[in-house]
């Protein structure tokens, strides 16, 4: 794996907000990975993590393209704030 292929966290918020942003990023042609530590912990039988801590990751090579999409998303959805 090259540095340009490494995943970079670009956004953290609630699951619902991340789902909407994921759709926006994918519409812009940016592949996205969502990581939900709380859901993973519950599925494994542990009760750790915060339910609102859902992360969006993109590859290093897509960070520059993702940032403007995130900025527009936040501007159009002022009640959504990245944690």
List the topology elements.
Layout: E1 7-13, H1 15-27, E2 33-36, H2 37-44, E3 54-59, H3 63-76
Antiparallel strand pairs: 1-3, 2-3
Key structural traits:
83 residues, alpha+beta, three-stranded antiparallel sheet, 42% helix, globular
Structure, briefly:
The protein has 83 residues and is of the alpha+beta class.
**According to CATH, what is the class?**
Alpha Beta
Please bin the fraction of helical residues: 40-55%
Proportion of residues in extended strands:
15-25%
Q: Which stretches are poorly predicted, pLDDT < 50 over at least 5 residues? A: none
Order of helices and strands: EHEHEH
Summed up, the helix count is 3
Question: Describe it for me?
Answer:
With 83 residues, this protein is an alpha+beta fold. It has one domain: Alpha-Beta Plaits (2-Layer Sandwich). It is 42% helix and 20% strand. It has 3 helices and 3 strands, in the order βαβαβα. The protein has helices at residues 15-27, 37-44, 63-76; strands at residues 7-13, 33-36, 54-59. A 3-stranded antiparallel sheet has the order 1-3-2. The longest helix is centred in the C-terminal third of the chain and has 14 residues, at 63-76.
